């Protein structure tokens, strides 16, 4: 069993081929027979897990296992406690109400590598960083949730899935997770 933690850079597709020639996982991951267990949008960055195990992939992607996923979202304006309370309670989206999320307003700037394409900067509009932990993975969910409470996401980085984080990696880098650690963190025997 192999489990790889990878820092997916901005503007990279979560697939190994693209007929349009855009950047894909194949530009970074050369191991045979590993596949992404989940997705990150092209305009999102951060932790992506890849595995050669169908069992682990199923455990990571099946909603019934509700693995916590932690994101750092840079949003427009400084969210109020009321906006954070809405995120914590669950937000009504077009496809239904989200599960409650952990939502924390972080202090200051995060120590993240610069993105190759800078975020939209507006002199009169401050930005803030939120840490959101979700237990579901709907399409573009973090972006839709922050927009629904009046704070559109400008930059989105997935920091962790369960106890596996990006710590020690830079964009485009990957590292194999020790099998015993992967089993322990993911609850797979």
Outline the secondary-structure elements.
Layout: E1 3-8, E2 35-36, E3 45-51, H1 54-61, E4 69-76, H2 81-89, E5 92-93, E6 96-97, E7 102-106, E8 127-134, H3 141-148, E9 153-161, E10 164-165, E11 174-176, H4 179-186
Parallel strand pairs: 3-9
Antiparallel strand pairs: 1-3, 1-11, 2-3, 4-8, 4-9, 5-6, 7-8, 9-10
Describe the structure.
This protein has 189 residues and is of the alpha+beta class. Strands 1, 2, 3, 4, 7, 8, 9, 10 and 11 form a 9-stranded mixed beta sheet that branches. It is globular. It has 2 domains: 3-64 and 163-186, Pseudouridine synthase I, catalytic domain, N-terminal subdomain (Alpha-Beta Plaits), CATH 3.30.70.580; 68-161, Alpha-Beta Plaits (2-Layer Sandwich). The relative contact order is 0.25. The model has no long low-confidence stretch (mean pLDDT 90). The longest helix has 9 residues, at 81-89. It contains 4 helices and 11 strands; from the N terminus they run E-E-E-H-E-H-E-E-E-E-H-E-E-E-H. It has helices spanning 54-61, 81-89, 141-148, 179-186, and strands spanning 3-8, 35-36, 45-51, 69-76, 92-93, 96-97, 102-106, 127-134, 153-161, 164-165, 174-176.
